[in-house]
Amino acid sequence: MISLLKKSSNPKIINIGSVAGEIIIPFQTFYSMTKSAISSFSEGLRIELKPFNIQVTTVLPGDIKTNFTKNRELPLVLEDEHYGDRIRKSLARMAKDEEQGMPAIKVTKIIYSLINKKKLPMAKTVGFKYKLFVFLKRLLPKSLISFIVKKMYG
To answer: What is the spatial distance between Cα 76 and Cα 135, in angstroms, rounded to a whole number?
Structure first.
């Protein structure tokens, strides 16, 4: 693959991560972990492929209005002795956020614009409020971010 990319006039790799990889969502930890891994993978590739002028970026969309929520398989246990109803409340919040999410075409347009850029950013967060969340995460203490996420998602 590298040999083919090296022959291109402006080679790029664009990976799709998620804001959930930057701001970990309770009861979706596995999803957040995999999206965070994509960002780490992209970062490593960016360093490894730089000598070949191959650019690498990660697109970090927030909630997107798709059938993802409708098709989600819910866990068998939505309430238990340890978490009470926190799982159910968290999943309900996620479903609401996704149903009110941005249209998929918005992310598509961002990816298309990145394909046509001469120089890629290290990462591209999609959506103003998600850019704000990621920016604030870098500024505010982790304990405050954790408190806010807990309030939002239980």
So the answer is: 36
